[in-house]
Amino acid sequence: MAKKSDLNKVMEKYGPIMKKFGNEIGEAAKKGEESLVMMSKVLKIQMDILGGTLQKERIYHEIGKEVAAKLFKGGLDIPGMDKYKTRLDRIQSEEKKKKKAISQVRSAGKKTKKK
What we know:
Blueprint: H1 4-73, H2 82-114
C-alpha cells in the first residue's frame, strides 16, 4: 500500500495538471451540452417542417381525388386534364380485367376442389 507521503508527492507533482485537465474536460462538456441543445432545437423545428409537408401532401391527395372524381363525371373542364383522364381510364380498364381474371381463377379453383 502506498504511504501517505508518497501520495502527497504524487499530488504535488500531478495535482495542477489534473486540475487543469479537469477544467478543460468541464469546458468541453459544457460546449458539447450547448451543441446538443442547439441540435435538439434544430431537429424539433425540422420535424415541425416535415409535419407541415406531410399535411400539405395529404391536402394535395384530397384535391387530386376531388379533381379525378369530377374529371370522370365530366364536370371538369380544365385544359391539360384530358391526358390524366386518358391515363386513369387505361388504368381502370386494366384493373377491371385483373379483377375478372381473379374471379376466373377462383371459380376454376372451386371446380377442381369439387372433383
